[in-house]
Specification:
Elongation Factor Tu (Ef-tu), domain 3; 3-stranded antiparallel beta sheet; alpha/beta
């Protein structure tokens, strides 16, 4: 038995040593941005840090807890000179991080007053394969939209730098939210992308639909009253916010009809129930003919 145990244990110890060494490297918080509804963005720098789109890191703040590590998806793009995470204040640890960064104070905080941060990672996810397809469907549910912030930023950097060599030609983006709290910071990114793509006369590169699933009668009435306005009253985008849940069968059939003979990557960051639905739709809408359309499903669950 020991012959079978020694090998895996040796590899495990090596992996733990590498992670310990990596977590001891100095991390500098360069900027803290406070977004609405108690969401903060930490922009950081670390020597030798390299990332890909959609990856995540483990974060420890000794000022809050010396033992706790928490995973956060990277929301920056690899092309940027820093890496960032968005933290929603929903518990004791995140509340402690919020206060440690001085976000509860009105005055400007000096950089040297920022707490020490330990970072372990980055670690890979399914979202890294997004550039392997010409057409992709990105589906984020609630806070599951965070990996696609990194994807969309990176796509735009690559598109601006050298659009001819970019294999990805079309993005269908779906965002499902129960309430409007998560809209604020991500809507800013979509507004920027929307404006820049219109300037380059390629508004068709990104098609997006935002669904507000936790709506009530008063919200529906508000939606009807303001539907004819040029921009959506919730997000400020030209694309109007939709209420309810998407009809996934119709969405898949429409996309399959527009891209015959293509391999379409379907990427989800969301709950298991939605993953089952999208997986079934990917299978049922893929053709048996190898030359036909095929949906390739990739998921991250939380």
């Amino acid at each position: 038995t020991w012959k079978w145990v020694v090998g895996p244990m040796f590899l495990y110890l090596c992996e733990r040593l590498v992670r310990f060494w990596r977590s001891q490297q100095k991390v500098v918080i360069t900027k803290v941005v406070i977004h609405p509804f108690k969401t903060i963005e930490l922009q950081m720098m670390k020597k030798g840090f390299k990332m890909e789109v959609g990856q995540y890191i483990f974060v420890k703040c000794p000022a809050v807890s010396r033992l706790e590590w928490h995973p956060f998806t990277l929301t920056s793009a690899p092309e940027e000179d820093y890496f960032s995470i968005h933290v929603r204040i929903v518990g004791d640890w995140t509340e402690g991080l919020f206060n440690a960064c001085g976000c509860d104070k009105q005055e400007f905080q000096e950089a040297w007053k920022m707490p020490k941060i330990a970072v372990d990672g980055p670690f890979g996810t399914a979202s890294e394969d997004v550039f392997s397809y010409e057409t992709v469907m990105l589906v984020g549910a609630g806070i599951g939209v965070t990996p696609f912030a990194s994807v969309l930023k990176s796509v735009w950097y690559k598109y601006c730098h050298d659009a001819t060599n970019l294999k990805l030609k079309k993005i269908y983006f779906y965002w499902l939210c129960r309430d409007t709290h998560a809209f604020e910071w991500f809507a800013d990114l979509l507004q920027s992308l929307e404006a820049q793509m219109q300037e380059r006369n390629n508004a068709e590169f990104l098609s997006y639909n935002i669904y507000l699933t936790g709506w009530d009668e008063s919200q529906a009435t508000h939606f009807v009253v303001h539907h004819e306005e040029e921009k959506d009253v919730i997000t400020g985008l030209k694309q109007k916010t939709l209420y309810g849940r998407p009809n996934w069968e119709n969405e898949f059939k429409t996309i399959a009809g527009q891209h015959p003979g293509s391999r379409i990557g379907v990427f989800l960051c969301g709950p298991e129930g939605l993953a089952d639905t999208l997986n079934k739709q990917s299978i049922s809408n893929s053709e048996a003919d190898p030359r036909g359309v095929h949906f390739i499903f990739n998921k991250e669950n939380f």
